Fold:
Amino acid sequence: MSNKILKGKRGIIFGALNDQSIAWKVAERAYEEGAHFVLTNAPIAMRMGEINKLAESTNSTVIPADATNLEDIDNLMLKSLDVLGGKFDFILHSIGMSINVRKGRDYTDENYDFTMKGLDVSALSFHKVMQSAMKHDAINEWGSIVALTYIAAQRVFPDYNDMADNKSYLESVARSFGYHYGMAKKVRVNTISQSPTLTTAGSGVKGFHEFINYSEAMSPLGNAPALACADYCISLFSDLTRYVTMQNLFHDGGFSNTGVTKEVISKFSD
Ligand SMILES: NC(=O)c1ccc[n+]([C@@H]2O[C@H](COP(=O)([O-])OP(=O)(O)OC[C@H]3O[C@@H](n4cnc5c(N)ncnc54)[C@H](O)[C@@H]3O)[C@@H](O)[C@H]2O)c1
Structure:
């Protein structure tokens, strides 16, 4: 389905690692809707080479950048302005990583070097990207910036570990920067709180498969798939959502407002 609702729009998409990545689906949908964009990921992620396939199929340019490195981000902004032929209209921040999760460290036994690195990659990077975009005046008025988050920012999901804290910080940055960017340049900033989704980042969380089934049973519409998340991103990049900013928007099939479902209760009957 394509209505070309991003026709003439330009952007940067962070975080397409492989065809399961949410950012990958966003890139495919943005291309279908007529957008022109730059793809970026950490230099280390480039080694797998898959992003080049996406660049080919979406007629886009790849510019590597470690989203924690200010020099890389500035270089990305300047090169993107050049490659895209002017200011752009949207940015997708689809980046997350916890070394504590990866190394199996419990929340009550964090390695704080790991914690700081995870915070930098998953949350502070969002601030860095927006600060650089603002400094280079890289985004058009009514432009739209979206980051992806998870409900563990508001409620406890024990195995999500320090990513919960990272997501709280990320959502706070969206509100605060959204205020400043809105005032200065009418640029919108939002986070989308997505259902658990089978991707490289998602499946790193302990007990993910059981959890995804639980979440499915707790969501009146079922878990939202990655492609549907991409559709929601497209709507936020479009002109149809011009007054939506500084929000955390749940895209979760109703999970966030459900106390319990009959399906889950039935599992406790004797
Ligand atoms: N999968 C889920 O269940 C789920 C649910 C809610 C929110 N999210 C969020 O969606 C976003 C995308 O994750 P995904 O599920 O598509 O997984 P993914 O593993 O495909 O994407 C994560 C991306 O982060 C990139 N990255 C890591 N370190 C980086 C760095 N230093 N600089 C630049 N990029 C870096 C990786 O290379 C990768 O492309 C993340 O913010 C994640 O927390 C995922």
In short: Residues 14-15, 17, 21-23, 41-42, 45, 66-68, 94-97, 121, 148-150, 194, 196-197, 199-202 surround nicotinamide-adenine-dinucleotide (CB under 6 Å). The longest helix spans residues 112-135.
